[in-house]
Design a protein that fits this description.
Elements (H helix, E strand, L loop, with lengths): L3 E10 L2 E10 L2 E6 L9 E4 L4 E4 L1 E6 L1 E2 L2 E2 L5 H12 L3 E9 L3 H16 L6 E8 L21 H10 L4 E6 L6 H8 L4 E4 L6 H9 L4 E2 L15 H8 L3 E5 L7 H11 L4 E4 L11 E5 L2 E6 L2 E4 L12 H12 L3 H4 L5 H6 L17 E4 L5 E6 L2 E5 L1
Parallel strand pairs: 1-4, 1-5, 6-9, 9-10, 10-11, 11-12, 12-13, 13-14, 14-15
Antiparallel strand pairs: 1-2, 2-3, 5-19, 7-8, 16-17, 17-18, 19-20, 20-21
Helix pairs in contact: 1-2, 5-6
């Protein structure tokens, strides 16, 4: 692996931008700052003042570029990674929708192999299990007949099959056995609560037991009422991370601003919840076992009209967040970088530009479009 020297960059570091150069060695950030000396033979890229930011991290996505995670082979997962890299994502979790135990284990096996054999694109860091421990009344696109009560032993079978790669798990607190399950597994995996109509008290018990996040906040979730705060009240009051799908459909811009005011900028995680239709025209697609129709970029179940994931990409989410909030990229970037890295426990190596961290970087032009994506020190996309 060759050294790489990025000069004349406008580097995002310490939640602000400043002129700097960056030296990459063996896929790791070796130095950041002025007057960096680099070895003879180092590849030099002049960024001409373009922004250099940490690679985006998507912890909740079901696919893109025509591929559905629940049917994805190793090669398919690598193809999704290449698609994500075109949009600035350098790391991701594949979200496995509630499915049969046999199919879930097959998906886990494909993901484990893809983690061990990364392709030229965004690196698959692990697995997000969205179910099957979810409430039928808030199932969204989940097949109801496959939903189950809380079962820590089943989770651990999945985790063993994954070789420990399940990093994120969505559960519904009101489902029988889930509160006990959270207490049992929350030291092994980041647990999110969602697809839920749980009352405030039950939700707060889930958080006390170790739940660390809320899945696609405000969506498939019991909403706040002054007499019945519900799961929404618990999520807003507590310190859990909140996922936000900032496509302008799942959340009105005012809802995004309200969420940020309630939670603070360090507790909101921008996710895509994208499906295989991301990057493709309107039409008919799949989300797990479900048929989905996409019209004007809006994905809904064909039989019920319930919204089913998104066609969002993370570079679009960045620009949307700037538009929705009136804030700068410097303010918004932690939602796509630092916050998700902290949520899933990889901030030691990812999520910011500091010596010793993985060289996962994105070059953005003045309109905040992706011009180049670098993963582990290698350019995997150039516009």
């Amino acid at each position: 692996m060759r050294e790489l020297f990025l000069k004349n960059a406008y580097v995002y570091r310490g939640r602000d931008f400043a002129p700097a150069d960056v030296l990459v060695q063996e896929g790791v950030l070796a130095a950041v700052g002025p007057d960096i000396h680099y070895p003879v033979g180092t590849q030099v890229l002049d960024l001409n003042g373009m922004a250099l930011v940490p690679g985006f991290i998507d912890v909740h996505t079901h696919g893109g570029d025509g591929i559905d995670v629940n049917a994805a082979t190793v090669g398919d997962l690598q193809k999704i990674g290449a698609f994500f890299a075109r949009h600035g994502t350098t790391s991701w979790l594949c979200s496995i929708l509630t499915d049969t135990e046999q199919q879930t284990l097959w998906c886990i096996d494909q993901a484990r192999q893809a983690i061990e054999s990364p392709g030229p694109g965004a690196r698959l860091l692990g697995i997000h299990l969205e179910g099957p421990f979810l409430a039928p009344a808030y199932k969204g696109a989940m097949p109801q007949h496959l939903l189950r009560q809380g079962d820590a032993e089943l989770f651990r079978r999945y985790q063993e099959a994954a070789g420990g790669a399940v990093r994120y798990l969505t559960v519904s607190p009101e489902v029988e056995g889930v509160l006990e399950m959270i207490a049992q597994v929350s030291k092994e995996v980041a647990v999110a609560i969602g697809h839920s109509g749980a009352d405030y008290e039950t939700s707060m018990r889930a958080i006390a037991n170790g739940a660390a996040a809320a899945t696609h906040t405000f969506n498939a979730m019991g909403l706040f009422h002054q007499h019945r705060p519900a799961i929404m009240g618990a999520v807003l009051e507590s310190s859990v991370y909140c996922e936000a799908i900032c496509d302008g459909r799942h959340l009105h811009p005012a809802a995004v601003r309200l969420l940020l005011k309630c939670k603070g900028w360090d507790r909101v995680v921008a996710v895509t919840d994208s499906i295989q239709a991301a990057g493709l025209p309107d039409g008919h697609y799949k989300l797990g076992v479900n048929d989905v129709v996409v019209l004007d970029g809006d994905a809904k179940l064909a039989d019920t009209g319930v919204r089913a994931g998104s066609t969002l990409s993370q570079d679009t989410a960045l620009r949307n967040l700037m538009d929705f909030t009136g804030k700068s990229a410097a303010d918004v970037l932690p939602l796509l970088t630092e916050n998700p890295a902290r949520l899933i426990g990889v901030f030691e190596k990812k999520g910011s530009i500091e010596p010793g961290k993985d060289a996962d970087l994105v070059v953005l032009d003045r309109a905040w479009n992706v011009r180049r994506t670098i993963v582990a020190g290698e350019s995997v996309y150039e516009a």
